[in-house]
Specification:
single chain, globular
């Protein structure tokens, strides 16, 4: 059997799991080709030479990363005269993957693939941004060993052609997919904007060189520090790979942004309710009107969020960050002492 395994790894957990899976498949006499998912990378146009497609990825907000979902949607058709091309999915997580395997399986099914196996493998968490990472290398390795066992079990099922789905309850799936939708549009961008480099930054540019989506750019001059664009996946690579622990979460920036978002949204909703809603309420049926007003409130909140992390960030906050004293205030953080996690032997690549 000839397999194509496509994967993305932020800090090395998925890469480690994939290496184990490949080794087991090859031990069983199967052929395996690996493809690292990255922006601009596409699978071979003709998948006819493969007997099975395997997808592996880290879980972000209980779903595949946005870049992985884009890759899956652009895959060549998996339809075959005798049925869809076999496919399998493994989601790597640091404490639960939610509906992530099912989300990837749905996209593959729409592309005509026959997804017979979905699973998860639990490794050490890399979400240092919120303090969920391991406390030490020993703790990380213990969790990695358990994850390895799950990856090996997945490989065994692949070899045996087992058909098995990892599922969560319907309410959990609904919650997880809703969270993933919000994370994909807003959350990852907002969280990416919370990253700041403090005075320990040497300007080495490692974060920029290894960012999987190219969202980090280094400033110019002697005091060059990184900044994050709106394309951030919030995969956690930059904060974990920095050799000086210089990348951290800005408490002040987060507080100011949240205050501005709430203030703008409240003002916009208040203005709408005062000047527009009465006229609309008079011509719309009560049920339709109530649903419409909720939708409009959500749109106003979305616009407020977009204005704050977009134009305001590019203009006002960029100027403010250039003022030395204020810039130091923006580097106030709670994450400086958190343990950074990169899987053993993993070398990040763009």
């Amino acid at each position: 059997m000839r397999n194509l395994i496509c994967y993305f790894s932020a800090t090395g957990n998925t890469s480690r799991a994939v290496a184990l899976i490949v080794k087991e498949l090859e031990k069983a006499g199967q052929k395996v080709e690996s493809l690292r998912i990255a922006p601009g990378v596409q699978a071979p146009r003709d998948l006819g030479s493969f007997d099975r497609l395997i997808i592996a990825f880290p879980t972000l907000a209980w779903n595949p990363p946005v870049m992985v979902k884009r890759f899956l949607r652009r895959l060549p058709s998996g339809k075959r005269p005798a049925g869809g091309l076999r496919a399998a999915v493994i989601a790597v997580d640091g404490g639960g993957c939610g509906p992530a395997p099912a989300a990837a399986a749905r996209i593959l099914a729409r592309r005509g693939f026959d997804v017979g196996l979905t699973a998860r493998a639990g490794y050490a968490e890399n979400w240092v941004q919120v303090g969920l990472g391991p406390k030490s290398g020993e703790e990380a390795e213990l969790k990695a060993e358990k994850g390895d066992e799950m990856a090996l079990a997945f490989a065994e099922k692949l070899i045996d052609l087992r058909r098995e789905r990892y599922e969560v309850s319907v309410p959990f799936a609904f919650l997880g997919n809703g969270l993933a939708f919000l994370f994909g549009i807003f959350g990852r961008r907002f969280l990416g904007k919370l990253y700041f480099a403090d005075s320990d930054c040497t300007g080495c540019g490692l974060c920029e060189k290894t960012c999987p989506v190219g969202t980090i750019t280094m400033g110019k001059g002697k005091d060059s520090r990184p900044s994050w664009k709106l394309t951030c996946e919030d995969c956690g690579r930059c904060i974990n790979v920095c050799p000086k622990r210089a990348i951290n979460v800005s408490i002040l920036y987060g507080a100011v942004q949240l205050t501005l978002i709430v203030s703008l949204a409240t003002t916009g909703i208040g203005a709408f309710n005062a000047f527009v809603r009465p006229d609309l309420a008079a011509i719309l049926a009560p049920a339709i009107g109530a649903a419409s007003f909720i939708a409009i409130d959500i749109v106003i909140l979305i616009l407020a969020h977009a204005v704050c992390i977009g134009p305001l960030d590019w203009t006002v906050f960029r100027w403010i960050r250039g003022i030395p004293g204020i810039n130091r205030a923006f580097t106030l953080t709670y994450s400086k002492g958190f343990y950074r996690y990169i899987a053993k032997g993993f070398v990040p690549k763009k």
